[in-house]
Every structure is written in structure tokens, then in C-alpha cells.
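Ticket opened by: R.M.
Priority: normal
Category: complex prediction / small molecule

The reporter submitted a protein together with 4'-deoxy-4'-aminopyridoxal-5'-phosphate and asked that the result be attached to this ticket for the collaborator who will pick it up next week. Submitted input follows.
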Amino acid sequence: MMDINKIREDFPILSEIIYDRPLVYLDNAATTQKPWPVIRCLEEGYRRHNANVHRGVHFLSMAATEAHEAARARVRDFLGAASAEEIVFTRGTTEAVNLVAFSFGETYCREGDEMVVSVMEHHSDIVPWQMLCERRKMRLRVIPMNDRGELLLDEYEKLLGPRTRLVAVAHVSNVLGTVNPVGEMIATAHRHGIPVFIDGAQAVPHMKVDVQALDADFYAFSAHKIYGPTGLGVLYGKKRWLEEMQPYQGGGEMIDQVHFEKTTYNVLPYKFEAGTPDFIGTTALAAALDYVESLGMDRIARYESQLLQYTEERLSALPGLKIYGQAAHKSAVVSFRLGDIHPYDTGLLLDKLGVAVRTGHHCAQPLMERLGIDSCVRASFSFYNTREETDSLCAALERIRKMF
Ligand code: PMP
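Result attached by the on-call engineer:
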């Protein structure tokens, strides 16, 4: 078992008092809090190790380069990638999707081609593909789901055809918590010779992910959702794709030779990393990965799954509360509405009672349309949350229900 009280001591923000109450932070799908090793790494980085990477001949620059490249190797290990050349640092999941939509699109997509996404995608995994479709006059096709929030795999396979260039799907839905069977979906796409992009933003903080075991062609995640720093993310891409794809942005680092007549590009992964990277952030991400792996991804998954079960049982017992997302395989996210009370009011009142949740469309408006609602409340959990915090959420909801 995990000693949650001890773990919570690693996260200084968790002992903050908000409106005279201890903070109950249930907005972990939006961003996670940072443990001391990550905070210290950022502080030490700026205080003692700051110098630009890949350029300097001096001691600090070489040390910074070494730490930055060690962080890349750490990410490679974490994802089970074959080589560090396949690990591209980005600003986040969003930039990783935009990178692939542009670079893969430039290289492989033509008028009349098709692209497949699912109905439960985050806007980040819809809009860049839509923009690609507009640029290239392609068609965007959508995998439907059932009322429990599970993708319809038969319908999915029917969407795959000779003009399908790419499938993009979330490993875990940020609203429904559904863990999609991405291994199976990738195998299906591969039978048709189609590569697959997996949006892993909501998966990597909660479960062991092995990109080679999944056979994913692309896999993206954001550092800030896995206890690391903001403004940083990772794109994993199979070397065979990354090598052929056009660069995304031009600038320093991504070049080999620059002449006014012709410019040649750097080797992988630098071809996709124009400009100075967030080299302090990458070392802090490595510290975050060390932290979660020291707890154990399997233990994290087990603990969070028990917490989810407890939370769903408790919430279901509240009169008038409706949960959205009842997939057989779910991550610790519970989206709901309380009777006729507008989710925005529920969220505001929960905040005043010390409970931080998210309300709105959660950057998934097409999914909201499918659910027939415009918004909902979302409580999303981490391994540092407790049953007592679920009890606080339920007690606060009970008070709100009575108020209305
Ligand atoms: N995809 C999913 C499933 C997400 O939950 C999020 C963040 N809410 C994103 C993509 C975008 O991540 P970021 O804003 O860190 O780029």
C-alpha cells in the first residue's frame, strides 16, 4: 500500500489553506501539483546550472547539455522507446499534435485523403487535424461511442480505407476517463497500413505506457500533467516517420548548414526542435518521472482505481447526481451534473467550500454535443488524493443540493 500522508508531504501546495479550509485539489486532469524534487530541480537549475545547451564550449554549457540529453534518455526509458532520437521535446501535447499535423501533413497528405479522430478528443487533438484537412482539402472522420463512453470498434474499422492517412485518438479521455483500447486500435489501423497518433496527456500520469508494446507511431504527453513543469511536452515518433517528415519550425538548432541558396537540416530529434529548448524544464521532467516511478506506476494505477471506485459509489448515492462516463475501463476522472444546478454554480460553490474542481466543456465541445449537455463538473484524482477528500466533495455537494 502507499503511505499517502507521507506522499502528501512531498507536495508543499497540498498544505495550503484556501478560504480558511485545507485545500481539496481535484483538478488533476487540468494540471498536477509538483513534488519537492521537481521544485528543487527547477530552483537548482536556475541557481547553479544555467547556460544554453548545444552551443557552448564552456563548463556550464556542457554540463547543461549533458543534463538535457540525460533527460531525453530518461523519457526514452520511461516510454520504452527504441532510441532517444525518437524523443522530441515540445511545448506540450498541443504543440506535439500541431507538429505532426503540419509535418506529417506536408509529407504524406493530399487532396481527397482522410483522417480519423474519435468523438471524445480534446480540442488539441481535433483542431490541428481540422486545420490540416482545410489546408489539404481532406475529410475528417469521427469514431462514435456508446452511451457508456466506449468507442465503437466495429464502426472504427469501417472508417479505415485506402485514403485514410492517419488515425488520432486519446489514450484516456479527459472528460469521461475512458481508457481506450489503443493497442487493439493501433493493430487494426496497421492491418490497413495506417499509422496512429496517440494523445497520451491523460494516460502517462496514471499507468505504465510502453510505446513499443503498443506499437504506436506517435505518442504525446505534457510534462505539467505528470507532476513536471509547465510549457514542456514530449512527442515520441517512430524514426521511420520522423526521418521522412518535413521540419515543423525553422530556426537555430534544427539546421545543419544555412546558406541563402539552400539550407540543410539537423539529424533527429533536433530537426524538430527549433530554438533554445526548455533545458531546465527537461531536467525537472526527468525528476518528475523518477518520482512517479519511485512510487511505481502499477501501484499508482491500483490506488487511483480504488479511489475512483469509492468516489463513484459515494457520488452515485447523491440524489439527482448524474455521472457522465461509465466505461468498463476507466481512469480516476468523474464528470457529473447535480440535478438542474448549472455546473458553473456547482463549481463556484464547491470552490467556496474548499474543493477545487473544473467546470465547463473541458475543451471537448464535440463530446459535450454527443452527451447532449453544454458543460459538466469534473473531479479528477491523483495518487495524493484521499477518501477523506472524496468525503469532503460529497459533503459539499450535499450542502449545495440543499441550498438549491
Ligand atoms: N489532450 C488531452 C486529452 C488533454 O487532457 C489535454 C489537456 N487538458 C491536452 C491534450 C492538451 O495538453 P496541453 O494543454 O498541456 O498541451
